Predict the 3D structure of the following.
Amino acid sequence: MPTTHHPLGIDIGGSGIKGAPVDPAKGQFAKDRLRFENPKRSTPDAVVDIVVQIAEHFADDTGDSPIGVTLPAVVTNGVVRTAANIDPAWIGTDARKLLSDRLGRPVTVVNDADAAGLGELEFGAARNAGGLVLVSTLGTGIGSALFYDGVLVPNSELGHLEIDGRDAEQRASSSVKDDKNLSWQEWADRLQRYFSHVEDLLWPDLIVVGGGISRKADKFLPLLHLRAPIVAAELQNSAGIIGAAWLACNDTAAQTESDA
């Protein structure tokens, strides 16, 4: 019986790089994910070396299927424009070409929060949600993905809003909670300030909170008081991998149709 090959999703974060084959019909991992710590200097070459290791590890499961890769950065047409939690050497790098050349397969590169948002939109807490949806990922920084009636508005970068004279993610990311040993209430007060500000700017119809900390959503979401419903991501920390693989599949299908 022939092996079913799945697209590969790889999520490059501020602290680790993780990947897994994904069943794009179910929005689930086809195999347990593999994770590596970031190299001491997360330069393009050092990070891509780890991406290659992950791709080789899952070669039997993915074949020549497309690969979706997330970066904690603004990405336009495969080119990296910012570097908030990775080495500044990424800025200006054509990541899509670099990765495609090294991996020998079609690669889609996307902002990490946008990938997580796509995962939640297709398979998670934002399924069938209309209007304006904000997916906010709380981790090393604060990522954001905006959707209007199911259409992504890419690279929103709302974690870098200036609030009270500070970059928002420097006050309210989950890494700040850990670094400063904040109580759930103390951290929720900072999140309240952040989400209230975003609400006043955008008036979202739904807010979905993701990132690894979403596993403990019951500790902090009930402490927030916003106009919009605010719910935990269903895919939790898997959303980026799933969203990236789903996007890679759809990008490749769209490219095949346009070439026909």
Observations:
- Confidence is low (pLDDT under 50) at residues 256-260.
- DSSP finds nine helices and 15 strands in the chain.
- The longest strand covers residues 16-23.
- Residues 188 and 222 are 9 Å apart (CA to CA).
